[in-house]
Automatic annotation (TrEMBL):
Family: Belongs to the RNase HII family.
Alphabetic keyword roster: Cytoplasm, Endonuclease, Hydrolase, Manganese, Metal-binding, Nuclease
Highest taxon of source: Bacteria
SUPFAM superfamilies attached to this UniProt entry: Ribonuclease H-like (SSF53098)
Name by which UniProt lists this protein: Ribonuclease HII
Name of the gene: rnhB
Cofactor or coenzyme needed: Mn(2+); Mg(2+)
RNase H type-2 domain location: 21-219
Family matches, as PANTHER family: RIBONUCLEASE H2 SUBUNIT A, RIBONUCLEASE HII
Subcellular location: Cytoplasm
Lineage: Bacteria, Bacillati, Actinomycetota, Actinomycetes, Kitasatosporales
Originating species: Streptomyces aureoversilis
Pfam families cross-referenced by the UniProt entry: RNase_HII (PF01351)
Length: 233
């Protein structure tokens, strides 16, 4: 399906209206997974022409995504990744875990951004950062699209590494997201040390429900849309 290439429109608008010069784009991956960390990439690109074919990572084939990530690593001005572990997700909830991962990514950049373009409609980052949220920013904003591709490729590689010794779960193929193979392995073998134990997929696994962790302040169900035993990801 054809798609419009991302532009620097939002970044130019931020620069013109606020006077900022260093703008970072943020995107996350792993929010809806049953296993593994949630990962946020912070990228700074400036206003240069992006590599051909750059768009939201979900619109790219794995082969194209990996090739593009190699190009992006040398093309971006700077980028850094931040992660929140399954244990931190269980303890803090997804919104706070996203904030933690994003803060780690931003703090790891060699230059501190003066503004941040965040994919989506919810600002999970907040103070002290100046944030502009953009729905489908990973398709429309160059800097967010770059962060999207880099985050996805790195987390997929991490999940393949974490899957060594847990081959029945298919992490190298599903990256910890819901899938029939993943569900079958959970039913037969139970969660691994890489699984999120506060998520509702355990409600459908009577044999393993005793492992479920309950947070003292549960988040709204909408923040964990990937926690059900569905297969969309």
């Amino acid at each position: 399906m054809p798609y419009e290439p991302p532009t620097h429109t939002v970044e130019r608008s931020l620069r013109a209206t606020t006077g900022v010069k260093v703008v970072a784009g943020l995107d996350e991956v792993g929010r809806g997974a049953w296993a593994g960390p949630v990962t946020v990439c912070a990228a700074v690109t400036g206003l240069r022409r992006p590599p051909e074919g750059l768009t939201d990572s979900k619109l790219l084939t794995p082969k194209r995504r990996e090739a593009l990530a190699v190009q992006l690593e040398s093309w971006v001005t700077a980028h850094a990744l931040g992660h929140s572990s399954p244990q931190e997700i269980d303890e803090l909830g997804m919104t706070a875990a996203l904030r933690l991962a994003a803060s780690r990514a931003l703090e790891a950049l060699p230059v501190r951004p003066e503004a941040v373009i965040l994919d989506g409609k919810h600002d999970y980052l907040g103070d002290p950062w100046r944030v502009r949220t953009v729905i489908k920013g990973d398709q429309s904003c160059v800097v967010v699209a770059a962060a999207s591709v880099l985050a996805k490729v790195r987390r997929d590689a991490m999940m393949a590494e974490l899957g060594v010794g847990y081959e029945d779960f298919g992490f190298c193929d599903n990256a910890g997201y819901p899938s029939p193979v993943h569900r079958a392995a959970l039913e037969a073998l139970g969660p691994t040390p890489h699984h999120r134990l506060s998520w509702s997929y355990l409600d459908a696994l009577p044999r393993w429900q005793h492992l479920k962790r309950v947070r003292s302040v549960p988040e709204a169900a909408s923040l964990e849309a990937g926690g059900q035993l569905g297969f969309e990801f």
